[in-house]
Amino acid sequence: MRWLTKTSMALLASTSFASAEPFGEVTVGVPVSSIAEAETWYLNFLGAETEIMRPFPGVVEFKVAPDTWVQLFEVENQQPSGAIIRFLVEDMADAQRERAELGINTGDAIDIPGVVTYSEFADPFGNALGLYDLP
Questions:
Q1: Cα–Cα distance measured from residue 45 to residue 61, given in angstroms and rounded to the nearest whole number
Q2: Phi, psi of 39 (to 5 degrees)
Q3: Which of 13-17, 52-56, 128-132 shows the lowest per-residue confidence on average (mean pLDDT)?
Q4: What residues does each domain of the chain span?
Q5: What is the Cα–Cα distance from 18 to 63, expressed in whole angstroms?
Q6: What gap in Å lies between CA 114 and CA 125, rounded to an integer?
Q7: Distance in angstroms (rounded) separating the CA atoms of residues 23 and 72
Q8: CA-closest candidate to residue 83, choices 23, 34, 124, 28
Q9: How far is CA 91 from CA 88, 109, 119, in A?
């Protein structure tokens, strides 16, 4: 039995461990009809301190969390993707107030006591977004 344990440990040490996270980074693509208008709106929504990349014309990426990017890409005949991107905030009321002061309506906050408070809304291009706050 001791041999099996030593052998198992040696095998584990010589191979890479499986991560609980299947990917190292996530980029969520969001189609927009005007990259310039979308960049301005998302910069207001996310905040001026947000890291931005412009890898090539017609694409802007915002780092919204560690290893997580929102990639805006310009398309003709833009249609909402059908997906919703939800952003965790520390305090729903504060997050909504801050965005309201910028002219961004983040919808009504819906509270499920002890579980989550969330809101749903859309960017100017019809893409579904949301904010949520955990207890």
A1: 14
A2: -60, -45
A3: 13-17
A4: 24-133
A5: 26
A6: 33
A7: 21
A8: 28
A9: 9, 11, 12
pTM exceeding 0.90: no
Whole-number pLDDT of residue 15: 44
CA distance 121 to 135: 21
**Which among 134, 47, 50 has a CA at the least distance from the CA of 89?**
134
Dig out the tokens for 117 from the structure: 């408070």
pLDDT band at 9 (very low <50, low <70, confident <90, very high): very low
What topology is assigned to 24-133 in CATH?
2,3-Dihydroxybiphenyl 1,2-Dioxygenase; domain 1 (3.10.180)
- Give the number of other CB atoms < 10 A from CB of residue 35: 17
